Amino acid sequence: xxxxxxxxxxxxxxxxxxxxxxxxxxxxxxxxxxxxxxxxxxxxxxxxxxxxxxxxxxxxxxxxxxxxxxxxxxxxxxxxxxxxxxxxxxxxxxxxxxxxxxxxxxxxxxxxxxxxxxxxxxxxxxxxxxxxxxxxxxxxxxxxxxxxxxxxxxxxxxxxxxxxxxxxxxxxxxxxxxxxxxxxxxxxxxxxxxxxxxxxxxxxxxxxxxxxxxxxxxxxxxxxxxxxxxx
Length: 231
Fold this sequence. Notes:
nine-stranded mixed β-sheet, Alpha-Beta Plaits, 2 domains, alpha+beta, elongated
């Protein structure tokens, strides 16, 4: 079946769409666009549509990835043209490419993601104070968070092995934290739990909550990471 890899943005009001609702939204949009969707087998067939990595409710996505299969070949430019006019506000296609059937599934290759968080400060902080807060956080032997297990019980988990990089900057009373974290089926680190651990460690004077964005999703590469167009 012809297969298409999509890079899209999930922003504005769409940041509050759950992963399941996002799947349904793309399915409805593809039907409205008149695309010849390939369907799964079985009692309840549905379009063959898969996302690289779920995105938490309330987190924007600047460069998200998904794949769609069609029943017949359609030029990629026609697919993006048809879908773009029917997607709701906040879902915006960057690019669509036709990919070979032999390429591995996106979800199987996702290894890490980059994030950005912005929040107001209640009073000024110097660049040195921010650097020291980040250095102190990363120097801990463990970064422990509470996470709910499969049986419903809460358990402590060390996420430090999945924290690859952290940086920070200041801009007119706004603090910006950027991080590269492990993402995928094993060792996944959620951005919100990472931020909670950082805030508790640094005790920086935040005013209100962080505005969260995932800025990229990547596969593992020999030199650290590679884009999902490459896998």
